Each structure stands twice: as structure tokens, then as C-alpha cells.
Amino acid sequence: VPITVFVFVFLLSASNCSGCGPGYKSPLDAMNGPREKIVYLPCIYRNTENRKPDYLATVDVDPKSATYCKVIHRLPMPNMNDELHHSGWNACSSCYGDTSKKRNRLILPSLISSRIYIIDVGTDSRAPRLHKTVEPVEMFWKCGLANPHTSHCLGSGQIMISTLGDPLGNGKGGFVLLDGETFEITGNWELPGEAAPFGYDFWYQPRHNVMMSTEWGAPKVLANGFNPADVKAGHYGQRIHVWDWTTHKCVQTLDLGEEGAIPLEIRFLHDPAAAEGYVGCALQGTVFHFSKTLKGDWTAERIIKVPTKKVVGWILPEMPSLITDILISLDDRFLYFSNWLHGDIRQYDITDKRNPHMVGQVFLGGSIQNDGPVKVLEDKELNRQPSPRIVKGKRIPGSPQMLQLSLDGKRLYVTTSLYSAWDKQFYPELIKQGSVMLQIDVDTTKGGLKVNENFLVDFGEEPEGPALAHEVRYPGGDCTSDIWL
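The chain above was modelled as a monomer; its predicted structure follows.
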């Protein structure tokens, strides 16, 4: 065979793979990635009637599979009352150029126990196994931090996890660093004395030498439920913190005021050159757009406000929407968020980044269904209360919460549990019935959302009893876990 044939085959192979590391070269390349076939979800038993450890569920989402919409594997944790929450990766698209890295470990922090579980998903992606447990005392002693939340891999090969508090349950927004090979805690990312008053989510954008972090509240206050008086007492946050990515110093704080109370998920645009993004603020149902100014500092402005509804039969005379999760499509064209109290998911066209307009909406449960105890007296958006949502004969309990979008942007997955203590307070039926995972079909041309009536994963039917399924992750990465450099 002529040597030119070997050269041609080599070059063809190189053009397809380039000997790359994990993830994708760019967000637009990711949009052309393979369709998701399985997903991982942490399932919680804390605050339910089942005295069992939390577990990681593997769900088949391949329509061609005989086990479509089924839980095909369950990995129980070795401890009780962890409150598994959000997960991340040991390596993702920020390590794309490093051929020595593999996306083969899922980082699974525990919001209440402060453990960090390292899950091996590389040996058998359909049957994950426990690789290592990082015990809370290591985080307490080495970092003075507790209640880990968001995990992101870094281009350096390290793993960074934000925290909500200190070991005593007070608010403390710091960042724990893990070695990407040994998974030992190596210390704090932030400099001594630089931790924020509260912590929650974060996103970094190295081309602008910046990281942004948000605030939930003090763990000892929010651990067992929500009391509006705690907001007035200053136990919940309302600020975005701006960090210098190189020096690890907090260089600016953006106070969003009462309209920005409890800013949760923060998302930069996926384009790594972009100097703007969005944050969803739970308490007042607002979305803020943040951006870099010509002077080089940062500013934020409210661009969306979901009106409250005047009601009777609820704990307060006005019901906020409670925006609890947001995400952006990989082409930076659409913004999605969930209103956990009102019960709807919204899709906004953000072609004009400061002037989004709603192009899709769907109701999936919530607190204002027309056959429930709450009666709406005044609604600035709806003419009537929404009807209950029935999918495959199942009335959907709870309300849409965590969102995950397929790489191509055509399928939106949603689960209905927020956090076990708040689930128990606002949707007690969710504790008894368990949560569900649904799929929404997305119109990516004009915008629009439609429930897939043939898709339902019912975690109320789990072998060990009804469970609260939370965040959705794809083995190959997704639009809320991958950051491009």
C-alpha cells in the first residue's frame, strides 16, 4: 500500500479527533455532539419518610432502547442525610487541549453533610461506582469551609467547589480546591480573609480574568426550611461577587438590592470571549444581566421580572415566582428558567442580550393549579389558573426546578425537586410521591416549548421508596458543566 494512503488516513483521523482532551473545542462544536443516551441524577432521601442513603441514578434516555425512561442503575452512598445536590467533572472542555485528561470522574458534593463523593463513571458509564470519599473534616480543617455546592473543573487540572458556609453553619462563600488526580483537598482558592459573606454558584471566564459568584444564605438558617423573616434579618444574600481570576482577590461586589434577593444560578454566555451573562434571583422572580464596562469594571441591571400573584389560601398574600434554575443554550441564543412556585418554564430569545423576549412557556404543576387550595385574586399575566399536568397517567407533583438542555438545544429535561427541606415545606405531596423527570421539546427556530407526552421517569416508583431526583448530567458534558477557555 503506498505510503500516501497511510498519510491520508492519518490526516483524516487527526482532523476528526486531533488527539484532543475531554469535551469539545468550542460551544458550537458541542452542539454537533452525539445525542444523550444516559443521564445521571442525584436522588435524595433526606427529609423523606425513607431512612435510606442518597444515591446516584443512571437513567436511559435513548428512545431506541428497550429500557427507555427507566432507571438502569442505582449507586447508594455509604452515609445517611448527605443531601446530594449539584455535580461536576474532574475534567471537561476547559481541559480540551490536554490529551492526558479524561472525563471519567463525577464530583458529587453533599450540601448538608459536607462530604464529597468521587464517582467512577469511566470504567462503566452505565453502572457508576464509588471511587473515593472526601470526609467533611478534611474540608473543615484545611479550608475552614463547609456545605459544598457547585463544582467546576479548571484548565489547570484542578477541581474547584464553592461553599455556602463555615463548619458552624454561618454563611461563608469560599472555594475548595481538589487535586484532579488524587482528589485530595489542597486548600482554598480564595486568599485568606477574602471569602464572601455567603456563597452558592460560580462561573469563570479567563479571557476577561474574571470569576463571578452568587449568594444563597446561611446554612443553619436554610437547612430546615424557609422563613421570610430570615431575609429581613440579613441571613440571605443579594450580591454578585467579582473575583480577579489571576490573583484570587474579590475586586468588586454588585449589590442587586431587594429585587435581586437570593441570586442563585449564574451563567456567562458560552462564547469564551463574551463579557456578559445572566443570574436568576429567586425571591423576587427577577433575572439580571451583568456585563463588563468600558472602564473595565462590572455592572448589573434587571432585565426580566416575573410579576407576583395576589392569592388566598397560601402562606403569604402575594406569591413570587421563585426563579430557581436558569441556563443558556450553547449558541447563546436562548435563555431558559424555571418558576418553582408558579409552576412554569420559560424560554426567552436573547439575540438582543439586554432586551430578551419570551418565546416559549409551559406549566408543569406548581402552586396555582386550578383545583388546588390556592386561589389567584390578581394575575398580571394569566387570564385563568393553569390546569394540572398529566403525563402518561401521572399527575405531576411539585413544580419544575432543575433544567438541562440537550447539546443541540432541542430537548429540555426538567426535574421537580428543589431541596428536600423546602420541598417538604412547599410541596409536601412531593415527599410522599417522589419527584419526576420530564422532557420538553424545544422549537429552536422560532422558539416554543411542548411537553413530550411519551417521556416520564417517575421516582415515586423507586424500589426503596419515593425519592427526590435533582440535577441532570450527561456523561459527555452539557451546557451547565462545561466552560470554554
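The domain at 37-469 is CATH 2.130.10.10 (Methylamine Dehydrogenase; Chain H).
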